[in-house]
């Protein structure tokens, strides 16, 4: 037997880059030029004849012959290399590669410590080798269209593309397949014997599904015979007669969604979230699922149907549309929305409910329109009957918005069209169809005439315009009442609700409110006065268009006022003008030397403004009317209304009514207003030495002491009494970037009578003098401590499959979606208190004075990292008024590599209960879990 032996180091071969012709009879071998490893190049007999023909100058090369496909079993060039040596056995047509050998043949790649190529049988054999310590190194790694395989020994026929792999490990989707022996066919299908299927990526997995027979279709599915679960090398009786595990690749695939088993106290046993996922195309996916309940007693538990569509268009938009329909027993009793310990119960409005969620988010693009949608609407009782998320369960209202906005190119005009809907759990629905707004950016009149800017005062004149138009539909009929306690014919202080159904379409449309508002804002520029004061005059004009108005008439027999709605086009206008003055005052205290605090600066920003609007009450042809017949009525003091005092020349006890009371843009301006506004804003900061700076680039830094201390009030010159409005104060600051303090207060300047009503006398005019009285105050203190604050945090998302949690009480912890194991512990506390002036001390017996402190609560939440993979969280609040904790909750999460344990415990309250779930982290085995809970639905 003749043999050829080649031996050299990889460095020598990298320097020589030699091309060694293969011995005769060893076809199809080549090595890439410049390869830094031992290589050889061979050609088949057809190619050799072509090369010999090319050297004969008497023959002309045939282009068709040159381009023809080589004959034989070799379809393409085989590239091979080895770090140590390559040995050819010419007579046996065998090549042996030693030490980190590799074979590249088309889409097949093989790497191993030793590789043998038998060209007579087209067979590749690869295996590892033991080192000096006896450890096997260079285990074969085989790659082809079916995936990547790690094995103890590989036999592969590169002609038939079939192979036999011993001690194989391969990844299929999110799972790993371990098998004693694997056979692979030309279709890349895998047949395994004595196999283990798992989602654990360790060589010795924590758990696996043990089966004697397996078939794998790459990127599609894994099918097994009888199997059982092995956890921690302990066989368990958990198993079935066959197994089916989908293993989708990068592309999505349609398939069945297997349901999960559960139990509820009101609807019995259940199969949930079973159905089908349909891939319509690359941009749309549809999920059709449902729940079915066995019921309690002799009644059927009902069912839920859900259809979810997710769509995506790259660089344009993304969206999610979800439709849910629920049917459940009509005789159930639902808990009320009360958060008291003693629960109240009520019957649902309907046994059949539905809900729609739609979110459409566009990709921002310059110059184009933007369409977006956020819809959450349906039956009022749907979330109370089917949602197990406390946030949705307790939500009192839901809002929906569909809008389109655009700025017209090369113009100052922009517009926005909205369709909105709001609903409450009490059944009140309000639709705005549509809500249109058009705006024109600020325009300078001098530019209209083509004048060049020359620094004149009129160049600061500007005009801006915006239009608002709305049509509002609601099933709530507002209550009608008159001011001053006047009797109303047919009026009531309680409104009514129109049931939402097609038979009530006419009264629903009749209850509509609509109108249009035009707003012109004219700015006359800003001018410096005395170098430091900025003066800004302005003029505002508003006009309202309404499709109806109110008509008042006095009924002598009923001694009451009658109100009728009259249809027609109506125009109402308002004008106002004003001027404002503002400046900034700085005070600085500088300390010389090497003190820690170098300077303290106080910034004061005072401002004064004046606004004026005329009186409209006397213009009966516009928007206000005075029924003269009311002189037959008297108020609570026995004084008649609208009686002219001849001596003083004015109306005593006047009363007037707006023709547009409670319209969509509220009541337009009524009486003359001449208001002076005062405001003072304060900021205090200090300059401190930076001890952490060693380079000298930032030796000092600024620290804010008071972010804002703002005071403001108004004085109405046109009012006949109580001219001075209450003084409002707001304070906010942040200490050491951890503690934030926010306070708001309101102070009144006038005295009160025994009933608590303000009278036109200042507090300074009483024997016990004082400037103001605290009427209202809010105070909140927030403290957040995080040892890793300011450092880069790595947030690890809980690797669980997204499931439809609607109607599923098995969701253990709906509050946390992420677990950050880089933070050892964190704490957030918030304290809030509210004060409301209870009024004068009562003189009547059996009268309980209200509490001045209406609310006071402390909220605490945080987490503690007990071990690198175990985190404990807590959240609760304490109500100091009721003297009891509110909604306490404890939760934990334990990472077990390929498994996870999560749980929660709410010791008392409406949502009291507990739950523990042990589950696999992979979404492929999302149904492989052990769950135990007692929630507020099934305890």
TrEMBL record:
Chain segments carrying region Disordered: 24-55
One Pfam match, given by its short name, reads LptD_2
Name of protein: LPS-assembly protein LptD central domain-containing protein
Q: Which organism is it from?
A: Hymenobacter cellulosivorans
Q: Which ranges carry the LPS-assembly protein LptD central domain?
A: 222-750
Top-level taxon in the UniProt lineage: Bacteria
């Amino acid at each position: 037997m003749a043999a050829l032996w080649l031996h050299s180091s990889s460095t020598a071969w990298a320097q020589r880059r030699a091309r060694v012709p293969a011995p005769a009879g060893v076809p199809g071998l080549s090595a890439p030029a410049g390869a830094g490893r031992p290589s050889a190049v061979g050609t088949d007999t057809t190619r050799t004849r072509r090369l010999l023909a090319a050297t004969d100058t008497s023959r002309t090369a045939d282009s068709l012959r040159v381009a023809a496909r080589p004959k034989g079993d070799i379809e393409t060039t085989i590239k091979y290399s080895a770090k140590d040596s390559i040995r050819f056995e010419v007579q046996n047509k065998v090549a042996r590669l030693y030490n980190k050998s590799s074979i590249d043949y088309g889409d097949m790649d093989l790497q191993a410590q030793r590789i043998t190529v038998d060209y007579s049988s087209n067979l590749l054999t690869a295996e590892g080798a033991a080192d000096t310590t006896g450890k096997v190194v260079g285990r074969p790694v085989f790659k082809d269209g079916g995936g990547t395989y790690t094995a103890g020994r590989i036999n592969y026929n590169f002609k038939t593309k079939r192979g036999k792999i011993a001690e194989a490990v391969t990844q299929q989707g999110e799972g790993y397949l371990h098998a004693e022996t694997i056979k692979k066919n030309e279709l890349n299908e895998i047949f395994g014997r004595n196999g283990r299927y798992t989602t654990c990526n360790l060589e010795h997995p924590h758990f696996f599904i043990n089966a004697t027979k397996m078939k794998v279709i790459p990127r599609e599915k894994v099918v097994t015979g009888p199997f059982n679960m092995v956890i921690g090398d302990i066989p368990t009786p958990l198993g079935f007669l066959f197994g089916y595990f989908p293993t989708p690749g990068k592309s999505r695939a349609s398939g069945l969604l297997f349901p999960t088993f559960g139990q509820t106290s009101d609807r019995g046993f259940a199969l949930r979230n079973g159905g089908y996922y349909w891939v319509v195309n690359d941009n749309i996916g549809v999920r059709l699922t449902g729940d079915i309940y066995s019921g309690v007693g002799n009644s059927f538990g009902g069912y839920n149907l859900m259809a979810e569509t997710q769509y995506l268009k790259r660089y344009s938009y993304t969206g999610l549309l979800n439709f849910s329909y629920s049917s459940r027993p009509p005789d159930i009793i639902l808990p009320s929305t009360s958060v008291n310990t003693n629960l109240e119960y009520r019957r649902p409005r309907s046994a059949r409910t539905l809900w729609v969620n739609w979110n459409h988010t566009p990709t921002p693009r310059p110059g184009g329109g933007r369409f977006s949608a956020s819809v959450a609407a349906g039956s009022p009782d749907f979330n109370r009957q089917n949602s197990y998320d406390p946030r949705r369960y307790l939500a009192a209202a839901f809002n929906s918005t569909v809008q389109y906005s655009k700025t017209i190119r090369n113009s100052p005009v922009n517009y926005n069209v909205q369709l909105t809907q709001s609903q409450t759990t009490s059944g009140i629905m309000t639709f705005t169809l549509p809500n249109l707004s058009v705006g024109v950016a600020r325009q300078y009149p001098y530019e209209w005439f083509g004048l060049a800017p020359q620094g004149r005062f009129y160049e600061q004149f500007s005009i801006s315009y915006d239009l608002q138009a709305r049509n509002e539909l609601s099933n709530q009929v507002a209550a009608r009442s008159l001011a001053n306690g006047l009797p109303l014919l047919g009026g009531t202080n309680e409104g009514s609700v129109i049931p939402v159904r097609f038979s009530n379409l006419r009264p629903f449309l009749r209850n509509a409110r609509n109108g249009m508002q035009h707003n012109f804002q004219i700015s006359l520029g800003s001018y410096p006065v005395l170098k430091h004061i900025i003066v800004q005059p302005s003029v505002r004009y508003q006009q309202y268009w309404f499709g109806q108005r109110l008509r008042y008439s006095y009924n002598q027999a009923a001694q009451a006022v009658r109100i009728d709605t009259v249809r027609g086009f109506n125009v109402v206008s308002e004008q106002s003008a004003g001027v404002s003055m503002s400046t900034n005052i700085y005070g600085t205290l500088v300390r010389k030397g090497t003190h820690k605090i170098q300077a303290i600066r106080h910034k004061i920003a005072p401002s004064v403004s004046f606004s004026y609007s005329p009186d409209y009450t006397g213009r009966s042809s516009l928007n206000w009317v005075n029924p003269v017949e009311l002189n037959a009525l008297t108020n609570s003091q026995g004084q008649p209304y609208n009686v002219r005092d001849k001596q003083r020349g004015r109306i005593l006890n006047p009363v007037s009514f707006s023709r547009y009371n409670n319209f969509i843009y509220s009541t337009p301006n009524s009486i003359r207003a001449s208001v002076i506004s005062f405001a003072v804003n304060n900021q205090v900061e200090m300059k401190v030495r930076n001890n952490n700076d060693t380079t000298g680039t930032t030796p000092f830094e600024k620290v804010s002491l008071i972010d804002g201390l703002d005071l403001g009030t108004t004085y109405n010159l046109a009012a006949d009494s109580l001219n001075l409005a209450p003084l409002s104060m707001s304070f906010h600051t942040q200490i050491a970037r951890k503690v934030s303090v926010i306070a708001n207060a309101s102070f009144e300047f006038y005295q009160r009578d025994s009933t608590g009503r303000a009278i036109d006398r200042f507090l300074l005019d009483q024997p016990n003098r004082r400037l103001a009285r605290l009427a209202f105050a809010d105070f909140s203190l927030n403290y957040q401590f995080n040892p890793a604050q300011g450092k880069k945090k790595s947030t690890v998302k809980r690797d669980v499959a997204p499931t439809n949690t609607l109607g599923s009480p098995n969701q253990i912890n709906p509050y946390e979606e992420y677990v950050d194991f880089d933070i050892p512990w964190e704490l957030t506390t918030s304290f809030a208190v509210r004060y409301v002036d209870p009024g004068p001390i009562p003189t009547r017996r059996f009268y309980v004075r209200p509490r001045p402190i209406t609310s006071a609560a402390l909220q605490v939440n945080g987490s503690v990292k007990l071990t690198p993979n175990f985190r404990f969280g807590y959240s609760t609040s304490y109500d100091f008024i009721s003297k009891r904790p509110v909604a306490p909750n404890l939760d934990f999460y334990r990472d077990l590599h390929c498994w996870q344990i999560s749980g929660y415990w709410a010791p008392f309250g409406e949502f009291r209960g507990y739950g523990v779930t042990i589950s696999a982290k992979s979404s492929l085995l999302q149904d492989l879990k052990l769950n135990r809970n007692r929630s507020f639905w099934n305890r």
